[in-house]
Model the fold of this input.
Amino acid sequence: MVELRKRPEAPSDASQPPQKKSASSTSAKPRSESSKAPTPSLDRAEESRKPVAGDTIQLEGFGGEIETQDGEKTNLKKLVDDSESGVVLFTYPKASTPGCTTQACLFRDEFSPLTATGYSIFGLSSDSPKSNTTFKTKQRLPFTLLCDPNATLITAIGMRKSPKDIVRGVFVVSKASKVEAVEPGGPAATVEAIRRLVESARVSSSEHVANVVEARETPKDENSKAGNASSAEDDSAEVRADIAAEVADTAEKLDEA
Done:
């Protein structure tokens, strides 16, 4: 009798050592979100929206809401509407510090000539109403100090250097919403910028008045010439009448003779 023997089983896959995957068989992993090109930061986006001299801005909502040192809520549009010719904002980093005191006092000392053409002057910082009230009272400042703790208006006019730093400078907007000046600078330079602007406005105003006067006087001169011509014609007619009368009188005398 023949005995049947079992054929030995082939080893299972589990007993085989794992095969190494070739580099070509691995699929490239998708790039993570962090590896993508960074998007422009908020500061850079804000930087591109900085107003420049000559721009006409939309005052409604521009710079958001701020408050005075007395805690009164206001905004740039209201300040411009209440002004005669426009608004001057001088920005300062921190109330009652040496540089900011010098700047505010320079504006104080030249307040009358700087407002002669109708501009309203305001100081602007991120200080609290309490700090600005102390600053205004101690330095006897004749203008209102504006408080912008979130730096919304400071950012809108291009005077924010970083989330907490403020650039010293001046921003001027006219009654017609036109940006007249945007200039960073030291205490004296900010006052000088407004002095130049006021002088330029004064010259333009003088030229305008001269043109209006000239326009009004020109028709008057023409009327005067017309009047003189009419008077001359009247005089000439009167002379001719006198001569005719004399001739007639002479003729009458000759006839009598």
